[in-house]
TrEMBL record:
Top-level taxon: Eukaryota
Localization per Swiss-Prot or TrEMBL: Cytoplasm
GO biological process, one term: response to oxygen levels
UniProt cross-references to InterPro entries, sorted A to Z: A/G_cyclase, H-NOX_domain_sf, Heme_NO-bd, HNOB_dom_associated, HNOB_dom_associated_sf, NO_sig/Golgi_transp_ligand-bd, Nucleotide_cyclase, Peptidase_S1_PA
Keyword Glycoprotein: no
Gene3D superfamilies assigned: 6.10.250.780, H-NOX domain, Haem NO binding associated domain, Nucleotide cyclase, Trypsin-like serine proteases
Domain Guanylate cyclase: 436-562
Example GO molecular function: heme binding
One CC-aspect GO term: guanylate cyclase complex, soluble
This protein's name: Soluble guanylate cyclase 89Db-like isoform X1
Reactions accelerated catalytically: Selective cleavage of 103-Arg-|-Ser-104 and 124-Ile-|-Ile-125 bonds in Limulus clotting factor B to form activated factor B. Cleavage of -Pro-Arg-|-Xaa- bonds in synthetic substrates
Amino acid sequence: MYGMLLESVQHFVQLEYGEDMWLQLLERADCKHMVFNTRQTYPDELMTNLAAALAEFNGESVENVMQFFGKCFVRFFSNLGYACMIKATGRYFCDFLQNVDNIHMQMRFTYPKMKSPSMYTTHIDPQGVELVYRSTRKGFTHYLMGQLFQIAKELYETDLVIRVLGSSNNIPGSRSVMVKFRIDFDNREYIARNNRMKTPLSRELAPVSISFLLRLFPFGAIIDKDMRILGAGDKLLQAWGGSSSSILNKHVTDVFKLRRPKGISFTWGNVIYLHSVMFELEMIRLNDQNASSNTVNTPSTSTGLDRRGSQGARSILLKGQMRYIEDLKAIIFLCSPLINSLDELLNMGLYLNDLNPHGLSRELVLAGWQHCGRLEMMFERAEQRSTELENSYALLDRWKNKSDELLYSMIPQTVADRLRAGASPLSTCESFESISVLFCELCDFDYSTIEGAMDIVSSMNAVFSCFDSLMDEFNVYKVETVGRIYMAASGAPDRTENHAQNIADVSLQLLKHVRSLKLPSGLDIQIRIGIHSGPAVAGVVGIKVPRYCFFGDTVNTASRMQTTSLPGRVHISSDAKALLSLDRYHVESRGLVWVKITKDKEKNLSALNVTSREIDNLKSIDEVSYIDFDPISSIPPKKPNVCNNCVCGIGRKTRIIGGNVTSVYEYPWIVSMFKENAFYCAGSLITRKHVLTAAHCLQGFDKRTIKLILADNDRTKVDKNAIIRRIKSVIIHENFNKYSKYNNDIAIIEMDRPVNVNGIVRTACLPKDKAVDYTGTTATAVGWGQTGEYEPVSNKLRIVNLPILSKEECDQAGYYKHMITENMFCAGYLKGEFDACFGDSGGPLHVKNTFGYMEVIGIISWGRGCGRPKYPGVYTKITNYLEWVEDHLHEECMCPPSSQRY
């Protein structure tokens, strides 16, 4: 529906109930729109949701509220001047009822996407009428009744009594709802006028032959009850291009295409009921049929539309009225052609003397009158071209995303965005006071044979691809690969104080993954790593193939650390060691090692290893927790019930750098929720049988209608690996009430069957400590929600990175005071832009912990709009519910992180 209908509701609700009531209605109806645009379309259910919300507030029925909304619309459009159009339809209210479809027909030129209902009278008497209402919308019966009440009272000073005689859905054809009304009102004046018009003249006129009538209307046609053509005017036959016998007894749909009224089938009953509505028919000319039949087997070389001009070169639009002739038991179509100009007249093969001798047809052609029907054809073709343009833009966006991926693989995203904004490559050169650089070399290759060399290439590709997947997890930038050498850096171009820790963590992960990597060639590969920290200069170098490069002694020294390292070891300089926490890492000194560097400087080197990160050496989860927190001030959590044959928080595929599209294999715990086969929410798999989601995604819904799907990335088709489950039971937090600020918005679903978490599906990790402050951390939200406030939900799984805001920043947002409780936190940007959106509700918000695996710390809960300034997203704080979650898992074990397995 167009925004004008919702504008009318907003205006009069604010006028009669106040601004606060309107805001509460928006929140309760889950409406994210604060302002409605007159010519923008919105979902039809938005009106019924607002009606249900208002009915709950004022205690009235939804039907009465819908009647109120209908009256609001009439009061609203009367102020815009549309009342004059209604008054012009006739002197009596019955005249208006018979011309509603004509009014809608004219309004379609202002509102081309309007899906207008159809109304016609089936019986008229002095006490009222029987009206049939047909529409594609369900639930708007009482809305129409409110409109009729207000129009009769305001414009015709008439009181109505409306009763519903019957209603039905799923009618064959294009309409899905039909309601028959009995409308009682004083209709005596209208009947008296009609009786006067039907009074026979004092002198009876002589009969008129049908041939004479067709001479008056040379483009007319006579149609019988079987919808076959009994007769046609001379000019219609000439335009058809054949003899009179070739058109007689043809079915009307073989000769004409119904253009108006829209949305109905061309049947005898519809024509009789809609006798007061103007009809427009497009003639299917005989030469068009021959041309199409001759080209049935000819392959088309173009999928676009014919751009040689409008269809006027061959088609003729006829506009007129269908009148029933009792003597013939047939309908005559009294019409004239719609022609814009003399040029168009000649293109049709017509001349001025072919037009009706009466009326203004000839004068209008000479004046170049723009007929509405022809304008509509032009609009439809423009709309089709607009669709082609949208498809071209979508294709352009896909190629742009691919080019972004290629660009971000060569240059860091922050630097690439500056270059795309017009910055000079020289301006990207910066001096960094302290960064950490890593060099890694693949050892012990044999180049003796061609076959061996090819095996080495495939193995190097497998190893370096594995390395690439780890870089983003630890905020490390891959600089380049040269031969068997892999170079990475942290602290540039994105500055961070933890660059040495990031490089040390990723180096240990490189060793771990190489040991467990199964190469296609079967080769055993070892690596040696060198790390150094210090100042450096970095910037974009090159024009044809630009690269982001690092310069300085720090790079040279890190390279020497690698060349003097040992296979399976991480070699660090004393400068790098000084930046690392010795409580976290196990460091062994190698003493003095001679390194070939400038000025023959001696470097004190150490071999780095972290025993606490080796799985076999772990004794308990309590000991591991000391890595992240101070052992003196931190109280270790209770040892949970964990499974020993699975891990959580580890994805199987890296995200697309710089893009928004991701994969369920990177977040294999994400669950999509469908209600009556329509996607509406998401959740996170936390055990083999349980899904964590938002309470508002479940409260009030029949669990039998909800379907859960795992391992399905693209909602347009079901993946072959997709897993479908139903709901066995639902546990909603006992203190949740979605009409009370969404506090305690958390729920647990128990599935009807467990899933295997050792395959493509894994569980999400939950936080282990309630005392962690995530303020300032960059978190990642995942979901299939809308890509914009006015965009549809996404078919592909998408991610967005959002900073977690402090309580002070959240309080500065535009939400009402006390709406953000201690069980919630904000994430996003106060300036707007990026945010979760409708459809993401219940999905996870992740952070990377020290070990690189993902922890779900928040549940996407609510917000005002999507990406609006001053309105960041609001999330359920999971750390406040860890004990609640554990108590409701029915002793089901949880998969631990890979670094905390027993």
